[in-house]
Amino acid sequence: LYSGYPFALFQRYFLFQKETYLIHLYNVFTGLSIAYFNFGMQFFHSLLCVLIQFLILRLMGRTITAVFTTFFFQMTYLMAGYYFTATEHYDIKWTMPHCVLTLKLIGLAIDYYDGGKDLEFLTPEQRRFAVRGVPTLLEVSGFSYFYGAFMVGPQFSMTDYQKLARGEMTDVQGQRPNSFVPALKRLSLGLLFLVTYTLSSLYVSDEYLISDDYMEKPFWFRCGYILIWGKIILYKYVTCWLVTEGVCILVGLGYNGKDQSGKPLWDACANMKVWLYETTPLFTGTIASFNINTNAWVARYIFKRLKFLGNKLLSQALALLFLAIWHGLHSGYLVCFQMELLIVIVERQVINLVRDSPPLSTLTSITALQPIFYVLQQANHWMFMGYSLVPFCLFTWDKWMKVYRSIYFFGHVLVFTLLLVLPYIRRLIVPRKEKLKKAE
Questions:
Q1: Residue 55 needs a FRET pair 20 to 30 A away by CA distance; which of 41, 211, 281, 400 works?
Q2: Is residue 151 a contact partner of residue 238, using CB atoms and an 8 Å limit?
């Protein structure tokens, strides 16, 4: 991940606004070098998928057939990789960057398809990402192997990559982007999280969750450990994304225009909203601050494309199902994202209940009580975050079931209980006129 910084510096000072084919060649060479260094000859998996994707675009053109073929082939190849390489542990193998590549190539096929439509049939978002020209093999390869995002992301579009290659991703046209300081800030923040995770992991680990010592602890300790563990375990992902974001910012890919005051924004490749992540007391707040680009990709290419179903909840469920399968074949992924959907539903119902109930809204507006409510919300929020992450991090049925049994499935019990009783509580404490007003 850190090798991206010298690569980005070289591109900044020696390749800025050079011929685009040189940029593509450089990205292919550096990306393949990273792949070979980490995975040896297994780098051919990505090379094969990139080549086949290029052939799909050229031979099938801007058709829905090309989109479905891309989706089927790339996802099947990834699933086969998961199947043949899966273990009971989190291993760094060729499927790790390949899952990032899979989304990138599927997104490219959809954007290429959109590029063949009239603008009037596209949403503003689709117009922004639609690929109008016909990408060359070198261009598709450079896009796929860009060193700043090859290993762990972030996701970015072909149109943004093309702007980068043309030297347009800069706050001052014709000059190198003034992005050194913003990149250094993200790198420094990433190193801070790395130190925090490294020190904390001496005392908090996945292995302890399934140890006999953990099982012998009292119930309150087991729950408290999951709360703290859930907070700490995500820092390894935060570290990776902040470090790679710094690379993208340094080279210019992170440029996202300017704000109303004319100040340049460098968050186009941001995968983390750190302040929101650390301060939000809401489950939905953490989702909005974590793995942002992947969530945006799923929203853009899966959730919004399911609008024809006419059911927002069903679209959301199918999007989360896709995310679970994309992560891997272990049962833990399905359980994790199923819990995410249920918790989000319950949280929204509770928020609406508090807002619409005069006694509850009055109570929560008392200034002296707000710090207490905030602490309780944070504890509840991270308790359920940790609870959901147990199957995500332990992968296999026997491991996460062992932990859930030790805490009596309290998360499932509470969530399903609230789903059943909240409608009745709402009838009792929300005045009828409030319901009529909302209906109007």
A1: 41
A2: no
Report the C-alpha gap between 368 and 320 in whole angstroms.
Answer: 39
For 11-24, the pLDDT digits (tens) are 999 999 999 999 99
pTM: 0.92
Q: Are 142 and 23 in contact (CB under 8 A)?
A: yes
CA-CA distance, 244 to 4, in Å (whole number)?
7
Cα(370)–Cα(138) distance, integer angstroms: 57
E strands, 188-339, are none
Task: Using the Cα atoms of residue 321, residue 324, residue 327 and residue 330 in order, give the sign of their dihedral.
Answer: negative
> How far is Cα of residue 313 from the mean position of the Cα atoms in its chain?
20
Q: Before 423, cis peptide (omega within 30)?
A: no
Look up residue 167 and give its DSSP letter: T
Of the chain, the end-to-end C-alpha distance in Å amounts to: 53
For 367, 368, 379, the CA distances from 363, given in Å and listed in that order, are 9, 10, 19
In angstroms, rounded to a whole number, what is the distance separating the alpha carbons of residues 383 and 110? Answer: 38
Residue 411 and residue 388 in contact, taking contact as beta carbons nearer than 8 Å: yes
Residue 91 · residue 82 · CB < 8 Å: no
The predicted-structure confidence for 195-220, as pLDDT tens digits, reads as follows: 999 999 999 999 999 999 999 999 99
Structure-block tokens of residue 399: 């491991």
Provide CB contacts within 8 A for 147, sequence distance 6+: 3, 4, 7, 8, 27, 30, 31, 34, 247
For the chain, the farthest-separated pair of C-alpha atoms sits apart, in whole angstroms, at: 69
Region of residue 174 (left: phi > 0; alpha: psi -120 to 50; beta: else): left
Catalytic residue numbers?
A: 291, 327
User: 244 near 153, Cβ under 8 Å?
Assistant: yes
